[in-house]
User: Fold this.
Amino acid sequence: MHRAVHQLLDRPLVFEDPLALAIIGGEAESELRAGRDWRGFAAPGLRPFIVARARYTEDALADAVMRGTAQYVLLGAGLDTYAHRRKAGLPRVFEVDHPATQAWKRKRLAEAGIAIPSHLVFAPVDFESESLDTGLVRAGFDFSMPAMVAWLGVTPYLTRAAVGATLGFLAGRLSPGSELVFDYAEPADERDPVSRARLAALATRVAEAGEPFRSFFAPAEIQALLRDCGFHEPSDYDATALNARYYSARSDGLCIGGHGHLLHARW
Assistant:
């Protein structure tokens, strides 16, 4: 929804996703195109961060492909449209998600008339009964070759133990030369009542939607965890860095606020 709203409301575009409006479904698309604020998504809120993280990830992927990376793994792919916007060829895209979520996406694709390209591999994984390793093996992922991994919009909803276990698996199982882009949430500054109130309001909304926040990391904590897992060269982009990169000199005032970070690491 945030990517779709961005296509309609924001100029210049930070991230072009011409399929976002189609994949959200006919009702939502009609409401947005009619100028109605469908479920409150027209307010800036998280949109600038979500748009920036998508842009950065796909730019980093393009660089990795130029260096020879031929596999792209999306952990928690949701309604991502990269594989459908990408012309035939590399990278091969592995979308990892819960089986029910992938069935929902397939239904949306069919309703929108969006074809499933040959370079897309769905890798359904029910983490309550099987591992990411099992799901990737079943999907034909080549562990002997480097990959770019995107893990976006997931870590705040996992426990610290689950985040650490996933990072450890990636660094230990995927080939050296692989890269990971993921986002994480920093805790609110206890000295800043506005910051605390903003984060508390967001936490309430996501909890009411059935997905409460479970983990926050200070930058030093996540850097230490990455080093312990075997990652190197981590680059951490906070709101200030992402605003400078994507939102400077805009006339509409769109910018990122809040506690999100985007981290790019290699091993």
Q: What stands out?
A: Residues 1-43 form one domain.
